[in-house]
What we know:
The first copy, chain A, is α+β, with helices and mostly antiparallel strands.
Amino acid sequence: MAxxxxxxxxxxxxxxxxxYQQVVKAADLAENSAVRxxxxxxxxxxxxxxxxxRVLDGMFKETGHRNAYFPLFIPVSFLEKEAAHVEGxxxxxxxxxxxxLEVGPDGKLIPSGELDEPLVVRxxxxxxIGATYAKWVQSYRDLPILINQWANVVRWEMRTRLxxxxxxxxWQEGHTAHATREEAVEETxxxxxxxxxxxxxxxxxxxxQGSKTDGERFPGAVxxxxxxxxxxxxRALQAGTSHFLGQNFAKASEIQFLDAxxxxxxxxxxxxxxxxxLVGAMIMAHSDDDGxxxxxxxxxAHVVIIPIAHKPEDLxxxxxxxxxxxxxxxxxxxxxxxxQVELDARDMRGGDKAWSWIKKGVPVRVEVGPRDLAAESVxxxxxxxxxxxxxxxxxxxxxxxxxALLQEIQDGLFARADAFRREHTKVIDDAKExxxxxxxxxxxxxxxxxxxxxxxxxxxxxxxxxxxxxxxxLGVTVRCIPIEDSNDPGKCIxxxxxxxxxxxxxxxx
Amino acid sequence: MAxxxxxxxxxxxxxxxxxYQQVVKAADLAENSAVRxxxxxxxxxxxxxxxxxRVLDGMFKETGHRNAYFPLFIPVSFLEKEAAHVEGxxxxxxxxxxxxLEVGPDGKLIPSGELDEPLVVRxxxxxxIGATYAKWVQSYRDLPILINQWANVVRWEMRTRLxxxxxxxxWQEGHTAHATREEAVEETxxxxxxxxxxxxxxxxxxxxQGSKTDGERFPGAVxxxxxxxxxxxxRALQAGTSHFLGQNFAKASEIQFLDAxxxxxxxxxxxxxxxxxLVGAMIMAHSDDDGxxxxxxxxxAHVVIIPIAHKPEDLxxxxxxxxxxxxxxxxxxxxxxxxQVELDARDMRGGDKAWSWIKKGVPVRVEVGPRDLAAESVxxxxxxxxxxxxxxxxxxxxxxxxxALLQEIQDGLFARADAFRREHTKVIDDAKExxxxxxxxxxxxxxxxxxxxxxxxxxxxxxxxxxxxxxxxLGVTVRCIPIEDSNDPGKCIxxxxxxxxxxxxxxxx
Lengths: 509, 509
């Protein structure tokens, strides 16, 4: 059911999943490649990732971490060292078995030079980094090790979706080693808070910080913490994880040290990561039926200037004027860097230009025609408002107010996402109501497609079998056990057994 | 033959190759990993690479390029499309043949889930990017495409050396497509000039810009241009390449467009890259027998402050004073960013601290003891001068002059490398002299190990067979045909045939 009044077909309410694919396409963010499950991240999508990297990298360094780089390949014998870990990753990894190609009998190239031991393309780097830390750590004086790596990883996913789940993806993985359990737990939670601060402060996406149940824990971790966000289809998306690994990987990799008393100890390690999945989360959290909406703090361009010259004789004056406007805007600062301006001088109709930038999510658009020059003003539109809403603003006012405007848009996106999540989060104390919440069609205005539930805050006894049963019956899982103290003990709505606090149940990406 | 008066054993003159390995180790830059030929880049080494990335990335963007990301894997059938290309890379590539591991009969994990078509881990991305561009390009309006990628690549090298030649390495690869031959040639040369400007302006390493002979060309290129630098053992190191690919890859990948006249044309493409090899080049160009010497513009730290408190009661005052000094230095700016300061508060002897930073190559060291506090001065040493040379400088003067001092050190390193290259570059017009240049031991003062030759500027007819013969006999190759017009036609010193200009012959890394 096409909707001619929106730039994206179908709309969110018509087919959310297909809407997402079309937003990615219309904004020119990424596309599938010829290699199964691997995406091409196009310049506009990659520029968003560069902004994510820049901000997070600064936050990691502020918290005492340094970057390093470890091998892409992991010997199979390394993976095998940690039982839960290999169990979790062996089923979906790219295996390198040969180191050259030679011409086969039919003239085609075939693998040759078989390796003594196959190598796995890293799905995550705990084992190869653990083996390295084991060499670096001798004494408690060598600890802590606080290192991050920006890298590509490969997990052989069967069903892939651009940004959300791809065979190869880009991420950062922090890997730290500590002398005590307390220090490692503190690090795990510190980085969880960094992720939450980034999601809320830069992505404008409210998140719940919590820990995972047994079934959803990282393979090999003692505790997995996560940040969970609600998308516009009310599903949960895990946007970052921070793992307290206890001594599991230290024992597997033999990361040992002499403590201050001369006793041999195993180190305590952590790992934490976010990936290009964040781009998918950002898209789904804010965008509308006209395409991408970018939070200004992560937008590759804050303002696009569209010169509108109907007559050739106006062109030079408009070009000069808009160039000067761009230069003056770039002297303004937003979120610690110069305001980013695109001047769209393409030989194309003004309306087509405007739509291309609407679909790309640029926070502020200004059109400049001959009358605007005369009036020393611009015709301005905000991406967070309906596309027809345009206002004339005096040039000087616009320039002086650009940083405040961008912050207002940033705050508005957060407030909107926060209100949406509150609206679709429900405290539930009854199994029947729980089932209804996740199965009854909730038909809102302009939303013909039934969308179920949202986040259910319900008491849970923690029994993995119960969680499994709910998952199979309703497609709903425990997204996390929120960290904030609810001081609200109660009874599991499934079993009636004691529950320390409410957990978040939801359908998930 | 150990030399107790230097921090690095052996010295350059004793064993240059081993000296290099020891400098890398002493500066804590990188180490070999458990995976054959793959290195671990440690934080100090990676921070240098981050600086290289930051500067080059800015230069690429200044010249109109944007970053994107393409798949790690290349189907074997893609490699096969360009005959010279597959010939060049098939012999040394990591081949992925399976997508999971399963427990084999002996309880060990074995590859499982064989792929229909094997995948190669990218040794370079012309073919996978070409296949993508073919989809993007329809009309001349879609051109040019100016894209760069920061990525890891894998070439199964048999003999590896940290930074200089590793199985996996980090690099950037620019890939552009153009409507005309002229535009593509212009792009190729523009990026060569960017590399030369970076090598000379940031790495403080003079380079010769030139083109490669047939034998040294990139597999599939029409012309390969390069920058060549002289290391301190007088060998040449290729520090960056820029390839004019003609229509070879456009034809292989079917990158076609309708030109302004409605005729179907193949695009003209280029590719250009530099890698973590630059870190190796930088080490070998400047470092001495006390370890690494960093050009200030790429140094992770410009100044290290070493508090010297012999008595515990002095500690607090010195700590406060050095912290304030660090803060004031950070307010100064060098090469467009704040001066980077390390305050070494480790519980360790001052001498040991100083030596650790000498070996790490930090351009300026200051020691601060109780007497310096009283005199409001610091005790300063420069890494480009002998380590015993220290001078007292007034605090205010030191802060005010830090940017100029760093620039002076930067310029001095360039001048030193430039003088060295001039000293060891010889115009040769005679085959016998040529042979002597590359075989006779040249014993300089304090250089007991014979070091041969350097760069020979000699006329060459261009015959690949002659080049091959010289390579086999003397281990010497044509590093490049310099771009600068020499206006100096002559006769090949090997064959007497006509030669348009002199070429650079040298032993090479």
